[in-house]
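This part of the workshop introduces the protein records we will be handling. To make this concrete, we reproduce a full record directly below:
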Amino acid sequence: MPADNIKSYIHLHFIVFVWGFTAVLGALITLDALPLVWFRMCIAVALILLFAIATKTAMKVSAKALLWFILAGLVIALHWFTFFEAIKVSNISITLACLSTGALFATLLESIVYGRKLIMQEIVMGLVVVVGLCIIIYGEHIPAIIENPSQFWEILAGGASGPGHYLGIALALTSAFLSASFSIINGKFAKEYDPVAISFYELLGGVFFFSLYLLFSGQFTVEFFTLTAEDWMWLGILGSFCTAYAFIASVHVMKVISPYTVMLTINMEPVYGIILALIVFSEKEKMGPAFYVGALIILSTVIINGIIKNRSKSESN
């Protein structure tokens, strides 16, 4: 395996680990999903602009590329919004399980965008990841499901019922689809433009569309901008390290790694998120055997996928 590829895979896992921390920050920040995402993007845009000026990064892009970047910004903004909103209307477990479908969406979209045939290996691995995450999140509920199959959805939702639960599933699946779509879009442009320029215009596009909505819905009030010092601190970390840095870095690794592999690796985010949540919130519950079984399945799938992908590239070259 080429040294650059190894570095890119390691870097990608670190980025995913950083993204895993966003769930913790989302719980610490008291804002609703929409203002949280808006402030997150604004902070990231300001920091990326300062970085671009300091490093004298070439920010010039074609009009066509700029349009794609702005639209991609709307996609990633909606992905973040639906992610946080899904957690709010249902629960974290349902959201994370649905997000595991991202790799399946990615392989389907890649076949459409790049015009290649569906690869059975990718479909199987995507399904294995879904199984792994379901074991992590719902493994302890399997006995109850076997005893009461008619209460399947109620058991998975932790007793939740009603339209809010199903809305949460719909939002989370939408979030997974948007995340896969965003990876496909960036995969087409990552090799042509500077990651800093791509990240700046995409996040600026997200800020633009969300600002229009907030403006015309009358939400830009004094109260909207009145945040606690603690919220500002967590938003600063979220907007800088977890967004500005991670965003630029993720676009950079896409120069080497395929969108499907990126999406498959991102499925480690829930694992990292659960571990970080346990550390930060000091939850009394200990992780049961199901967590380790599911985590091992996901990690093994990600590693095997990387080995197969690079072996195929080496044989073709």
Observations:
- Residues 30 and 295 are 30 Å apart (CA to CA).
- The two ends are 12 Å apart (CA to CA).
- The first helix runs from residue 3 to 28.
